[in-house]
Automatic annotation (TrEMBL):
InterPro entries membership: NAD(P)-bd_dom_sf, Sc_DH/Rdtase_CS, SDR_fam
Keywords: Membrane, NADP, Oxidoreductase, Transmembrane, Transmembrane helix
Lineage summary: Eukaryota, Fungi, Fungi incertae sedis, Zoopagomycota, Kickxellomycotina
GO MF, one annotated term: oxidoreductase activity
Protein name per the record: Oxidoreductase
A cellular component term, taken from the record's GO annotations: endoplasmic reticulum
Nucleotidyltransferase as UniProt keyword: no
Length: 318
């Protein structure tokens, strides 16, 4: 049955709203701002903590499945008299490990979820917004879309793709009155690691056995002490999304500014900084690599890196 939606009440469809994740908290915050929220989840039981809110309704939505996307969008449009004012593409999965050893089946899965699934929803919802000459599409990227790090090659590739796709989409939809926003979270405490169950290394065939501790540390990087709570992230981001003219990029969360600055750091310095933190330099030592920098070179690189970081911070804030 179609329900009349008050003119001032914006209709929001969000993907990836399972309990504990960013989408879950975005749904709660949007509802707190008076929006009518349709929270997409692959399994309805994962949205039990949301449905007590009278402004939130759970919708079965698997972004990797055409039929599921079509059915979810059709349901929302039927329930609201043909309206979706804001689409939030939040569904995503993690993918970590040595890039050359991750099975292609897993690569297909992460691209299908993080990028193709996002495009699938955009292709379905955008025409509705275009015909109404209004709407906002929010694509959740990542600061890793600005700067890649070891062990997350495919995940960061999907997020960089989201950023590039959104840039094109923003310009193409602007004539129709539709805004496109990229939200790039920093280190946000969420359930993304809880949902990551794939094997990090390829059993006995791996050449990265000595790097296992570094890879496991990297997987937990976004969830360690100091990470921004997802509820706090949502409380800061949602008012920006609801602005009459939202910014093209909203970057927020622990370490987001420093990671953004690294985009402008020369590769030789960036490789040193990230290689030191994520363990590729230690792996080179363990493998007795002849390409390892000498102590004198390392010292120079450290000082240059510090100078570049300082310049980046000055550029960002002043």
């Amino acid at each position: 049955m179609t329900v009349t939606v008050a003119k001032e009440e914006r209709v929001v469809l969000i993907s990836g709203c399972s309990a504990g994740g960013i989408g879950h908290h975005l749904a709660l915050e949007l509802a707190a701002h008076g929006c009518r929220v349709f929270a997409g989840v692959r399994t309805l039981s994962k949205a039990q903590t949301l449905v007590d809110n009278p402004l939130i309704e759970a919708v079965e939505l698997d972004v990797t499945d055409d039929a599921s996307v079509d059915a979810a969008v059709a349901y929302v449009l039927a329930a609201t008299g043909g309206r979706i004012d804001i689409l939030v593409n939040n569904a995503g999965i993690n993918c970590a490990g040595p890039t050359v050893e991750i099975p292609l089946s897993q690569v297909h899965q992460v691209f299908n979820t993080n990028f193709i699934g996002l495009a699938r929803l955009c292709r379905t919802v955008a025409p509705v917004m275009m015909d109404r000459r209004q709407g906002t599409i929010v694509n959740v990227g990542s600061v890793s879309g600005y700067t890649a790090s070891p062990w997350f090659g495919y995940y960061t590739a999907t997020k960089a793709a989201v950023h590039a796709y959104s840039d094109s989409l923003r310009m193409e939809l602007a004539p129709f009155g539709v805004s496109v926003v990229v939200v790039a979270p920093g280190r946000i405490k969420s359930n993304i690691v809880d949902n990551y169950t794939e094997t990090i290394l390829d059993g006995n065939n791996t050449r990265y056995t000595m790097a296992r501790p570094a890879i496991e540390k990297a997987v937990m990087f976004s969830q360690t002490e100091g990470a921004t709570p997802a509820s706090q992230f949502a409380s800061v981001v949602v008012p920006k999304l609801l602005h009459r003219s939202p910014a093209a990029y909203i970057t927020y969360g622990d370490a987001s500014s420093s990671i953004w600055c690294m985009y402008y750091v020369p590769p030789v310095i960036l490789d040193y900084l990230l290689g030191s933190y994520f363990g590729t330099h230690q792996l080179a030592k363990d493998l007795q690599s002849p390409s390892l920098s000498s102590p004198a070179t390392t010292s120079v690189v450290v000082w240059v890196a510090l100078a570049a970081a300082a310049l980046g911070i000055l550029y960002t804030f002043f």
